[in-house]
Amino acid sequence: SDAEAAESINAVVISGKEDRFSGGADLDDLNGTIDDLLFDDELGLLTEQIQKSSLRSAAAVEGVCFGAAIDLAWACDVQVVSTTARFALPAVQIGILYNPISLARLHARIGSFLVRRLLILGEEVSGGDLGAAGVADAVAPGSAVQAAVDRLTGGPAASDALRTTKAVLASLDAGDFDPGFWQQLRGELF
Predict the structure, then answer these.
(1) Quick one: which of 13, 33, 48, 171 is 20 to 30 A from 100 by CA?
(2) Rounded CA separation 40/29 (Å)
(3) 2-16, 21-35, 144-158 — which one is most confidently predicted on average?
(4) Does residue 67 contact residue 25 with C-beta atoms inside 8 Å?
(5) By C-alpha distance, which of 87, 67, 76, 68 is closest to 131?
């Protein structure tokens, strides 16, 4: 049945087409004003759901991964990227302040050095660069999806323990980790 099949799923791979992950937001829809907050809010809800899901997740990136697509990819538990994949955050170059919440998450996940290269210097970085920096698993072009599936094969099943562990990690990434809260929750759940 569909319900039994859904219960057997314990991981998800997010990918794009063979030659691109995503170009990010449609820049014609963004204008650097308060109107952009709706897009930021929607992306924030999506990334939060990925981070707090009981499913393990991997982003499989081939080709371009620009703007908000980077935030989507790094909301996943694992990032598997083609060595030739291209990453860019053009917000500053077009005069837009990148979503500060997303920026904080990326800063925590990929580090200050890479965030500065992407935003302050306006550089494009490759999947090979990200692999060398230790913030992604870099693989041969054309193999990111299969490598992501392989990474997620086996491992723990979806459970409250997995969902809670992912929430603790998201809290650490966000910089709002409260050890007392998590210890108390741990005592209540387990």
Answers:
(1) 13
(2) 12
(3) 144-158
(4) yes
(5) 87
Mean pLDDT of all residues in 19-34? 69
Tokens in use for 135? 């913030």
Asked whether residue 99 carries a pLDDT value surpassing 60, the answer given is yes
Long-range Cβ pairs for the range 6-12 (8 Å, 24+): 9/55, 9/158, 10/55, 10/56, 10/155, 10/156, 10/157, 10/158, 11/55, 11/56, 11/57, 11/58, 11/152, 11/153, 11/155, 12/53, 12/55, 12/56, 12/57, 12/58
Interhelix angle 160-174/100-110, rounded to 10 degrees, is 100
Q: Which residues contact 47 (CB under 8 A, 6 or more apart)?
A: 71, 72, 75, 102, 105
